[in-house]
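Table 4 source record.
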Amino acid sequence: MSERIKKEIKQIDYDKTQEFFKNRAEKFKDSNPYSVTMYQDSNPQLVEKRNRKETEKLFPLLKLDEESKVLDIACGIGRWSDAIHTEIAQYCGVDFSEGLIEIARERNKKSENRSFLVGGAASVEKVLAENNKGKFNRVLMIGIFVYLNDEDVNAALAQVERICEEHAVVCIREPIGIEERLTLDNIFSEELEDNYSAIYRTRSELMAFFGEHLLNHGFELREEAYLFEEDGLNNRKETAQYYFVFER
């Protein structure tokens, strides 16, 4: 059964999401690599423009230096690893899709201080501990909460706070519901040629999560805004890309 649900809370099926990203990984092409997680398969120019705009806007806000230890949760194929040319101490990407992590490892096999681990956002603490990873001072969460049910948004953020060093920057970019919460439950997308499930929360809903797990633990909201001002980069009526930068 497929549904578009407004305002009401409806859980999405993670098994279907796993299958969706397995299919996405199989569609990977070197000629348009970022479309795997940014979609727009038939419009590589839009993918390139969106990627460039996002990284140009958010990169300076990370304040990276040679002591930065970057944790990229829901890293996909390592798109943000590609964007980081600054010398940093380490980068660790985590994603629940084995297919995407395989691609990320292949694309970064010559990078000595970059690693990629399979694991979900709600179990990131365990994954890092099992791989002898310590704490981090930079955390990226790019387009992840849209694929998590509410209880796992709470779980992920609680763990992020614990695995952050005393001083840390957390950068979150998320598609939000502009006017109201919208859940797509196993909706067929002609653009993606697959069934798709996602939860688009409003800014206020997200801020409630951030307040509990970040603001109540010493973080301050340094900056927030819509990611794209240009109409050409926004092609959705009900949702839009938004970013938050927290610092402690």
